[in-house]
């Protein structure tokens, strides 16, 4: 069995995860933990894809490491936005941009681990007060994606106005990672909305009061950052890659779009959350405008959204305020991780001083030192094994598709039973492809039971 982290290594790797200060980024100890997080992220994804026992996820939760992962995400975010610009002021054309990219990639690996862990309610419960910080981080990341889309980042990738300098290439890499992280944060926000009862009250309030996540999801659904049109045709962002889709594939709902719809649905149908969410005229118009996006093809694939369309339709027919938030006195907690990191940085002399101290790491001109770091990181990323696994997954999907086609031709499509009423069924769930239903009504009725086991394949 292929593994990125072997059982005897798992406990050591997870227990080695610890919070770093911004000034520590790029240090030998930081690189040690970075390698472990990369491998843990790869292993966690492998366990989820192959439906194995999710040992990485369980270990992260039981050892209370999710809070540290959120800390690390903010740590890199602040380094990226506050320290990196000063480094590039010192040297606009660094020789080894891959060292800088390694730090940016670290943020993506951390969010990948959180994505896997928070799919389960136990992960959301383990967040405790750090859920406030995570809501802030994810809302900001999704807003950044919307900003990139509004600038045409995803539509004009091959026509970007990029000069020959290394700085421009680094900026492109940074934006690509911002894009990937933002799309991953859609899933995390959906998991938080789905398990809102497991979160602290302050975190659930931040979803609707501070960040207005329903409006944020409405913007996403209108901008559609998961698809684009290029010279090759229509492309969709599937498994962190842009893939050309044609025919029936073009109409299939992909994960990011489904997660955005379900996130909106979970919030609008949660009575406790809606007590704090005033449906004023602006919100009513913005949300009601989404009903035109809920076309028949989409509803066939995601039947639970039928109720959402009815709600949005009712909003469009109503006038004025459809409800008001309670105006009770409420003592709100403040997220601590970001502010604590900024406070620690100020004690170290500020972001400019940190940039000067890290100059010998990220603007290094010693070719031997650069080569040593490159070899070390190449071993950590294990690109050969990743390529091998990706090829196996693609082959498995092709074989599965052939088996489904042969089965449909040979058995008359009458051998399957409805997962709800046990009648003969022809249509299967478009996400997990493992359960059949005789009608849209049965699929909708069974969704509360099925959604926990519904994993997109």
TrEMBL record:
Pfam family, one: zf-MYND
Gene Ontology molecular function: zinc ion binding
Domain MYND-type: 418-454
SUPFAM superfamilies per UniProt: HIT/MYND zinc finger-like
GO CC terms, sorted: centriolar satellite; cytoplasm
InterPro entries linked to this entry: ZMYND10, Znf_MYND
One GO-annotated biological process of the protein: outer dynein arm assembly
Coiled-coil spans in chain: 379-406
Keyword Cytoplasm tagged: no
Keywords: Coiled coil, Metal-binding, Zinc, Zinc-finger
Protein name from the UniProt record: Zinc finger MYND domain-containing protein 10 homolog
Protein species of origin: Glossina fuscipes
